[in-house]
Structures are given as structure tokens and as C-alpha cells.
Amino acid sequence: MAIVQDLRSQQRLLWLVALGFFMQTLDATIVNTALPAMAKSLHESPLRMQSVIVAYSLAMAMLIPASGWVADRFGTRRVYVCAISLFAVGSLLCAVSSTLAQLVAARVVQGLGGALLLPVGRLAVLRTFPRERFLQAMSFIAIPGLIGPLIGPTLGGWLVEVASWHWIFLINLPVGAVGAVAAYSFMRDGAPVAVEPFDWSGYLWLASGMVSLSLALDGLSGLGLGHAGVLVLLVFGLASLVAYWLHAMRVPQPLFSPRLFSVVSLAIGLLGNLFSRLGSSCMPFLVPLLLQVSLGYSPFEAGLMMLPVALAGMAVKRITTPLITRLGYRRVLVGNTVLVGLSMMSFALITPTQPLWLRVLQLAVFGAVNSIQFTAMNTLTLKDLEGPQASSGNSLLSMVQMLAMGMGVAVAGAVLAGFTAWIGSGSAPTLARVDTLSAFNATFFTMGLITLASAAIFWQLPLGEASVGTARSPEAEGPTGH
To answer: What does the record say about its membrane topology (predicted)?
Structure first.
């Protein structure tokens, strides 16, 4: 009887963690198709709404490095309940926001809650399930990471049309309430864990650097900062990251040890993740905006057009590992990075008269090669890590993924704003569709070029290395299932 109750308790925990992961991944994509409707309601330009996405990703990137220590210090159940509650409160604040500044601040609150959902939930599963069942349990939790991005854009577009954009946040409230009650009832805190002193100095330097660089990029368009303000933020951000590096080299237990970068696969994998995602992460933001602002799609139609990206990404998952095993990481990542860049640049050729089937094919091709890219980059980053390095490397990878997602959208927003001002001479308050389409086309070409350049990073890999290591776990594919 006790065994049956224990199995039921474990199953409830899996569903609970999967629910939290679903909420997090859904909100990472559901906003994209609603941005034009939000802009209209808040009296903003739809081409300046990237701060809504950047704030969420940056808040997650900031808190992820501290998530493990927080869970150990205060207990997994208490932190998980607080995380779901904070996510729900942030959702409510988003729904009642009446200005862009309020919405961005609310997205920060939502992102702080979302940052704890998966790492703390994963830790609870690790402490509950025996080693032989852990991989199976994590595979179950990874499923929402595929479903959330699949339905997010379409659901967001549908809610905007049948109700209003506020409901893309309000739907989180009943789910969050049920999740918080279930977490308090079914999640165990486990045995007390000895907590090492947290590297607060290193954390503050690292967080300051990430925030400053992201704000500098977003300040070129979304925040409307002048060149002097952007330059100050850039210098402060770079100085903060250098200060963290110097700090980490001299303290015994830094947040992330510089010695991690002595593992060649991790160093190349992290840098490749950062620069490759700077380009490709802008696509879920740019494509729905292009379809609605320049091509006249409704929010629901724009959401439907994102389905080929997610479906093609899921379809190629099974061939990625055999492909790496046969060709090796260097050939796969260099060649596939070029394909990702070229597929992005192909969107520069979009015209209002383009056949629908060709547009769908473009999106499907991008989804397929982008999925291969993310899986290959993540397995490369983690495959040679063992023991304590594996946990630290996984947290560092998660942080870099979220940081690159936010910075990619910020860069794309700045590039789009620059081309829009240049094409429209910066004088007209609203531009004709043909002008915005030209600005979008130029932006796609530029962001694809950035992605192409990142292939040089993967070129540094040893030729023929094809071992797909065991350090990788399903959740390493990022907060959006990639």
C-alpha cells in the first residue's frame, strides 16, 4: 500500500512540474502574436514592443544562476509555491497594465517567477525519483516544452480576436492557483541540504553586466535612449562582466568557475549558443509582427502561420542524433548554422504576392534547421561535463539561452527601428505597408547575416568529433522546447 501511495505521489509531482513548465513555455511564445494589439491599446508603435519580450527573458536569465541555491536554502516546496504565485501575480499585473512601462515591469515580475519553475521543479524530481527512473521522468516533463511553443502563438492570436490581449495573461490565474495549492499539498521538501555561502558579489557583477548590455541594446529603439546613454550602459555592462571574471578567478567557490571554459566543447558550445541565438531568437518576434503589420494578417492567422515552425522542429528531432553521430559536431553545426542564416535571409524576399505554400515552406524549413541547431548546440555544450561541472554547466547554459533570446529580440528591434527610420526618413508617424515591408526585409537579411557569422565559432571544433555524450538531458533544450 505504501508503494502504491509513493508511486501516486511521484506521478502527481510529475504532473505538477510539467504544469509549471507548460506555463513558462507558453508565456514565452503566446505574447508574440498579440504585440500589435497591445501596441494599439497602449498607444505605442507595434515596431517598438520588443521590450515586452526582452524584459521576460532578461528577468529569467538573471534569476536562473541563483535558483539552485534558493531552493536549497528555503526548500523546494516553499520556493515552488512562491514561484507559481509570483508568476500568477505577474500575469495579473500584465493584464491590468495601462502603459508600456507598466507592462514591461509586470513582465519582469512574471519572468522572475518563471525562472524558478523549471530548475526548482527539476530539483524536486531529482530528489524524489531513483536514478534509474530519472531520465524517464524528465522526458515526461520535457513534453510541455514542445506543446507550449506549438500552441502559444495560435492561442495568443485567437484570444486577441475573440476577447482582448489581456486574456493571454488572465488565463494563467486559475492555472496558477491550482498549481500553487497542488504544490503545497503534494510536493515534499525532502531532507535538509547543507547550503554553501552564496557568491553574492559575483552574482551582482554578473547580473549588472547582463542587465546593462540588454538595456543598451533595447535602448537603441524600445527605450528611446540617446547614443550617450547607450554608450554608458555598454561600457558599464562590459566592465561589470570583466569584474565578475576577475572576481571568479580569485574566490574559492564562484558562481560559475572560469575553469569550466577549459572544457573546449563547453566553451565553443556556450559562445556558439550566444551568437547563433542572437540571430535566430528574433524570428518568433519578427515573423508575427511582419505578417500583421506589413501583410495584413489577423492575429489568429499570424499564429497559425507559426505552426509549421513548431511542427517541423518536432519532426526532425529524431534524426539529429544520428546525423551528429555520422557527420560529427563540426560538420553538422557549421553546415546547419549556414542553413539557419540562409533560411532567415530568405524572408528578405517576402512580398505580398508570394504564394501561401511558399511562405509555409519557408517557415517549415527554418523550423527544421533551427531545431537541429538548438539540439546540436546543447548536446555539444554539456557532453563532456561530469560531476559538479555538469550542474554548473547546465545552469550556465540555461542562463546564456535566456540572455541570448532577450538580446536577440533587442538587437532585432534596434535594427528594425533603424531601417524603418531610414526608409521613412523618420518623419511620418506611421509608415505605409510597403515601407514597413522593406524595413522588415532588410532586418531579416541583417539578422540572418549575424547568424551566418556565428558559424566561424563552430569551425573551431575538432574535425570528426561525434560523441553524443550522456550529460545531456531533455530539459537542456531550453525554455521553449529547443
So the answer is: Multi-pass membrane protein
Q: What is the CATH number of the domain that holds 183?
A: 1.20.1250.20
H or E stretch covering 360: helix 356-382
Following DSSP, what letter does each residue of 197-223 receive, concatenated?
A: PP-HHHHHHHHHHHHHHHHHHHHTTTS
State whether 95 and 143 are in the same domain: yes
The residue type of 165 is W
Same domain assignment for residues 401 and 439:
yes
C-alpha cell at 145: 516544452
Residue with cell 495573461: 169
Looking at the structure, tell me whether residues 359 and 420 fall in a common domain.
Answer: yes
177/51 Cα distance (integer angstroms):
27
Whether the Cβ atoms of residue 304 and residue 433 lie closer than 8 Å to each other: no
Confidence of residue 95 (pLDDT cuts 50, 70, 90): very high
Q: 250 and 265, same structural domain?
A: no
b/e map 401-425, b = 16+ CB within 10 Å: bbbbbbbbbbbbbbbbbbbbeebbe
Question: How many C-beta atoms surround the C-beta of residue 370 within 10 A?
Answer: 26
Q: Is the model's pTM score more than 0.85?
A: no
Work out how many domains the chain is built from and give that number: 3
Indicate whether 333 and 312 sit together in one domain.
yes
Distance, in Å, from the CA atom of 43 to the CA atom of 31, rounded to the nearest integer, reads 17
Domain with 434 in it:
260-482
Cα 88 from chain centroid (whole Å): 19
Same domain as 270, residue 127? no
Domain end (from 167, 197, 227): 197
φ/ψ region of 284 (left if φ > 0, alpha if ψ in -120 to 50, else beta) reads alpha
pLDDT at 341 over 90: yes
Q: Using CA atoms, how far apart are residues 25 and 111, in angstroms rounded to an integer? A: 11
pLDDT at residue 429 greater than cutoff 60 = no
**Cell 525519483 -> residue:** 129
Residue matched to cell numbers 515534499: 188
User: Do 169 and 42 fall into the same domain?
Assistant: yes
First to last CA, the chain: 40
48 and 86 housed in the same domain: yes
